[in-house]
Amino acid sequence: MAADARSAAKLSPETALAQGRWVKLICGASNQDLPAITDLCTVFGAAGVHCIDVAADPAVVQAARVGLDWLSAKGLESPWLMVSLSDGRDVHFRKAWFDPAQCPSDCPRPCQTVCPADAISMQGAVNAQRCYGCGRCLPACPRGLIEEHDHHVSLADVSRLLAELSPDAVEIHTAPGREEAFDGVVGALASADVPLRRLAVSCGLEGHGWTTRQLSRELWQRYRSLRRFGFRPLWQLDGRPMSGDVGAGTARSAVQLWRVMRSLAPPGPLQLAGGTNASTLGYLAPTDRPAGIAFGGVARRLMMPLLQEAQLRGVSLRAWPEGWDEAVQQARTLIQPWRNRPLSSFNC
Ligand code: SF4
Ligand code: SF4
Prior knowledge:
By secondary structure, the chain is α/β, with parallel strands linked by helices. It has helices at residues 2-8, 13-19, 34-47, 58-73, 110-114, 155-165, 179-192, 212-229, 251-261, 280-283, 297-313, 321-339; strands at 22-28, 51-55, 80-86, 94-97, 147-150, 169-173, 198-203, 233-238, 270-273, 292-295. The chain is built from twelve helices and ten strands. Strand 2 (51-55), helix 4 and strand 3 form a beta-alpha-beta unit. The model is unreliable at 1-8 (pLDDT under 50). The site of one iron/sulfur cluster (SF4) has 14 residues, from loops.
């Protein structure tokens, strides 16, 4: 075990995938909180993630690169930078909106209370940069004032944007019946001629009314599309989207989905996401070997108090030594159990 932990210390992303030790940080497909994104990249990069997944937005990618360059300058491993796209409407690519002028002055503001991103201020509207579309405020408003606005990149912009962002990897969120739209996005990515180490596909069952057989059929269709354009797949099974910070039990969905899909999915690494948190490992049997895991809401929630404290001090986390040390230590509690898993091997 000690030797495994040592060998995990310098795992390349591809080796981590092959050994079931891959860890990705999801900053949020519609999260545009730039100072927080830079800090999240530095903290979780230093804690050992292999990939950081951000919105396909030039300002966001620039903020992430500031963090990754900072890691490199410190002699630390720099993770892959992945950007997320969607082939249609998707909850990960939405933002909440309401007009605060419509709110009664005596409203106890349950929308503000439930927001995990601190995106709704006292008496204010939604801070669109911070909102990552979790949707928890939508049913919380007793007057039904909160709307969801779609925020995904249009097909016409995909190729130009990819050439501009030049990430290491891309993730496409897809849904049932969108094979043609998916093909269109993959074709646009191919035409940008940017070498990608992996093209991840994110898909789950929740909200789609699918069976696992249908999900399998859809993933095989996506696989044929990736093969046609020469991309290497990475399958992200989205158990219970954007819920990892809600409670330990949300982790069960992703593990159950992975168990069913491991024999039905196309070739390529199968990674857990959606509801993942520190409890996920506990739901896995010793023989269960997913290729890795992605942490989203739970990772951001973990850092929230320190990010807010740094903001109050008017500095970044990386410029506040005590806060930085504590942040990396906390991030490691989430990341290292995966990086230090016993070895296994996959056909990736
Ligand atoms: S609760 Fe979720 S959807 Fe609503 S404002 Fe906050 S982050 Fe956005
Ligand atoms: S819960 Fe509804 S009415 Fe109350 S502050 Fe929020 S958006 Fe306005």
